[in-house]
Write a structure and sequence with these properties.
homodimer, about 450 residues, alpha/beta, seven-stranded mixed sheet, four-stranded parallel sheet, 15 strands, about 40% helix, about 15% strand
């Protein structure tokens, strides 16, 4: 069952959770240990975006009309009730999913990509530079840049650039310049290649390269894909719409679930429901067991990129030096976590669960066979948690409403399911001793 | 700009064009030369579907309520105005597209897949057997079968089975049994392999194998993906919705364009606009120059499969023996064409154009950069015709409304664009002498 929402009801504002929090969130920090302000980030992002990053007072930020018109090309997105999955699980629970797979780039990342490109175009920015793993974020940004005649350059983790050619192909099809990272373009890249000419790269290195280029190049700025406050704010369209749709469906969500990589999808869905906590709603962030920042990490300031060009953030981290195995959900391999999501976890406002990838893909296949849509690898992790909660409802004979966030991103993902179905996929669990070793090297900033 | 349509306005009936035609359409025929009737097709399809195939009186067929509820999971689909593309082309024309890429399987084929699976489930049919090239049709049918607990078996052209593993992977992910064709499962397959053990197969051979299995296996039926009258009828939801949406947008379509393979997408979009012809609307079917049934074929009875298990149809054909080069739009390589679309072309109610694949993909890339959505290879051919018409409008300073059908199918298609962008794609044009040689072997049925 699909619950649509009239285009006129698309939210005209982004939601900022900070004024509603009963506790403080630690600010971004420089490597030398002072809290960063507006001017420190100026070289990196459009002014309007930096203002949003530091906004602590306003609960709502108006979305410019031109941008609202763009959002209306694919928003409001539908909410579905997964009745066939409920039947297969023989559960009294009702399972709802907010479906973001219908955006032009096939994922919710497009929500912030168009916002950032829009603001960049108003400040005469000619280039946006970004880092990407498999290509989801890069493809979203490339499509959005085209709408505003902005050039897009993407540093792509070399392992992904070489292995999974489709992510790269989509970005190139959309006209973006894609550079395998590490590259000789930047000091960071050259340094890494100097030590290890065959380096397959990492997202942290790609981030450093993109930062370096954005801060040096005339007319260029960096574009974040997740983690930062303003990105989550842009994503709150998801949760605001889902709230209206759940009301139309007459279902207050008892459990809200999303996969977490950097935290923007989770925050985008969950934050607009934050006050429902008082009525008993639970929020579950689902991690991969191979990079479990919340479940096993330390709450501390850490680098967000390999060379410390980007701000340090107070967050749950398994250490910027920890290299997770190459599991098939690129966006979930990041060592850190959004400071907002981290603070909520610290304050026990949200829960975390971690699963190995084969459990996730097993659930993803079950979902696809029931509902028809093939979920993204990230969404498959969320679905595993949904299935577990729905089975618990069956045991306890409880009729709960479960809501989760669903993406497709299918351009990149079928290879992953193929690997799973062929039995060629291995499970990985982050070992405590490795995480402990990695967090021992955290920078000393408090 | 997106034009949505209220769920309540989704058409409750399929449209049958036959009562509105001013001429007769020749019936399906047996190889021995007698017109086929209901009982001849009985072993192959559910009764309700065969009735639809032979329906000549009723203009409208009611869609069962349960099926309407299913359609509402992704229908009505949106209509878009491609304003950014118009701007890039600097044309006074207005370009609209009916977007079918948001269905669970990512293509309009899902419209008939769920209808066929629905009727099959009501007649206690346990298996549906189909033939597929790249996997678009097989994936749609596999997803639809899951909704009704029907087993799905797909004979997939061996060249595609081996080359483009994603089509196969999606079907397997959805639980279908996928068999590379030619196979040893059937007499047809064994015969082909006996002559040529390394045969890479063809859609005609896969069709014969699927027919053979469906007609022999207890509780099994065959499922067509295109060509037949009932398939186009199921697809008329597309055009009926587009008509309402064009009215809401205040735009009478002057030119309606769709790619044609077997003709079901074209018919589904165009037939509900048939009467607009009297007000000057033009309809353009776009073919690939490597398999131009309408543009270069003969209007005659021909086999629809390699061994003549399926009905012979009166259609434009380049000969069932003609093997088109392996161009990257699998659905457009078929030698024949829907009898309804063929008859309309014969009677000059519609036009046909043919393009080589590189021209098509060039247009597809331009569209993706303007609009964000990556079109399917088939849709790229339609877009090439749209771009040409829009440029003609610029020359003549005419403000026409152009409407076309757009699919994504992106799971399968990115490899194709990669090949194009890397300059590794060749153009192919069907040579007159090859087509003439192929149509020389047509069966003698008139």
């Amino acid at each position: 069952m699909r619950v649509t929402l009239d285009a006129k009801k698309m939210p005209g504002k982004w939601y900022n959770i900070i004024p509603d929090l009963e506790f403080d969130v630690s600010p971004p920090m420089s490597p030398s240990g002072y809290p960063l302000g507006f001017h420190d980030l100026e070289p990196l992002a459009p002014h309007a975006v930096i203002e949003q990053e530091f906004e602590k007072e306003k609960r709502e930020i108006k979305i410019p009309d031109e941008l609202q018109a763009l959002y209306r090309e694919w928003r409001p997105t539908p909410l579905f009730r997964a009745e066939r999955l409920e039947k297969r699980l023989d559960t009294p629970a009702r399972i709802y999913y907010k479906y973001e797979g219908g955006s032009p780039s096939g994922s919710y990342e497009f929500n912030t990509a168009v916002a950032q490109a829009y603001y960049a175009s108003y400040e005469d920015i000619k280039y946006l530079v970004a880092a990407t793993g498999n290509g989801e974020w890069g493809a979203s940004l490339a499509a959005a840049c085209n709408f505003f005649d902005i050039k897009c350059k993407v540093y792509m983790v070399r392992a992904s650039y070489e292995e999974r050619a489709y992510g790269r192909s989509i970005m190139e099809l959309l006209g973006a310049e894609v550079v395998p990272s590490p590259s000789e373009n930047t000091r960071t890249g050259s340094k890494v290649l100097g030590k290890d000419p065959g380096s397959s790269g990492s997202l942290s290195i790609a981030l450093s390269e993109a930062f370096e280029e954005a801060s040096k190049k005339e007319g260029a700025k960096f574009a974040w894909g997740t983690v930062m406050n303003h990105i989550i704010m842009h994503q709150t369209l998801i949760g605001q719409e889902a709230r209206l749709q759940m009301k139309e469906a007459g279902a207050r969500p008892d459990i809200i679930i999303s996969a977490v990589g950097g935290g923007s999808g989770f925050g985008g869905l969950v934050f607009p429901f934050y006050k429902e906590r008082e009525e008993g709603s639970r929020f579950i962030a689902v991690e991969t067991a191979s990079a479990p920042s919340l479940s096993k990490g330390r709450y501390a300031y850490d680098y967000t990129d390999s060379d410390g060009f980007a701000p340090l953030l107070k967050m749950y981290t398994i250490g910027h030096g920890y290299v997770p195995p190459n599991i098939r959900a690129g966006g979930m391999r990041y060592h850190g976590m959004s400071p907002l999501v981290s603070a909520l976890y610290r304050e026990k406002r949200i829960e975390a669960k971690a699963y190995t990838q084969r459990r996730a893909f097993e659930a993803g296949v079950e979902f696809a066979r029931a509902e028809g849509f093939v979920p993204s690898p990230e969404s498959s992790y969320a679905i595993k948690a949904v299935v577990d909660e729905a089975r618990a409802c069956r045991e306890k004979k409880e009729r709960k409403n479960i809501l989760f966030l669903m993406n497709t991103n299918s351009n990149l993902d079928i290879a992953v399911f193929k690997e799973f179905l062929e039995g060629a996929m291995e499970d990985h669990v982050a070992q405590d001793e490795h995480v402990e070793a990695a967090v021992r090297d955290l920078p000393e900033v408090e």
